[in-house]
Amino acid sequence: MVLFNQFCKINQEGLETIVMKKPSSLEMIQQSVKTCKKCDLCNTRNNAVPGIGDENADVVFIGEAPGKNEDIHGEPFIGTAGKRLDDALENAGLTRSSVYITNIVKCRPPNNRVPNDTEKLMCSNYLEEELQIINPKIICLLGNTSFYSILGGKEISKNHGQIVYKNNRVYFISFHPAATIYNQKLLDVFKNDIKKLVNELQKIKNKN
Ligand code: URA
Ligand code: SF4
Question: Is position 115 within any domain?
């Protein structure tokens, strides 16, 4: 996998130095993900599902793992949960193309089970690279897997709507949109959270 490109440069004294280039582009990560075989999920997937969206996005959304539809089409959040996410984005004045959407693991676990620790670890470099390249102003963690994997947090129902600062990054905690599918009340809460996220983003932008 391409993480950082190294190349050699001859300086004025004729000495060779190794120069680190900026992290590879999102397209390169997408290509690496599509052919990745670093964990067992590659054996059962139809398509790996790289993140999608704007390289200059202010907001990155992180879900758990691709589901059935995502696995078929190779795109994140395009099934029923994705529709809920799209609705909440639109309700808050955001469009899918203006944000970046990705997952903790990029391949569908069989029967949509929660990804295990090995799978999450093996896949974590891709997410880290995505975040380094995009450098978003705020990162929205969608649901327990995302919240736990990145912040070690539990109980979304108690923590949703909160901001967490960690390692120079700003996180916003919210429900997974799938949780809202059969629960209209939760859908309203989720939509409110995403509005709050946009508010927080505005505050961050005003400070800069
Ligand atoms: N659920 C997720 O967590 N991610 C997707 O991409 C789709 C459903
Ligand atoms: Fe590679 Fe991640 Fe897919 Fe595992 S889940 S095969 S680490 S892209």
Answer: yes
Cα–Cα distance measured from residue 158 to residue 163, given in angstroms and rounded to the nearest whole number? 13
SS3 6: strand
The atom number, within ligand 1, closest to the CA of 177 reads 1
- Residue 30: give its domain's CATH number: 3.40.470.10
Q: Is 22 helix (H, G, I), strand (E, B) or coil?
A: strand
Give the global pTM.
0.89
Closest atom of ligand 1 to CA, residue 75: 6
Q: Is 107 in the pocket of ligand 2 (CB under 6 A)?
A: yes
Q: What are 20-72's pLDDT values in tens digits? A: 555 459 999 999 999 999 999 999 999 999 999 999 999 999 999 999 999 99
Distance 13 CA to ligand 1 centre (A): 53
The β-bridge relationship of strands 100-103 and 59-63 is parallel
Q: Which ranges of the chain does DSSP label H, i.e. alpha helix?
A: 26-34, 68-73, 80-91, 117-134, 144-151, 156-159, 184-207
Residue 1 in any domain: the answer is no
Tell me which residue of 117, 82, 116 sits closest to 96, measured CA to CA: 82
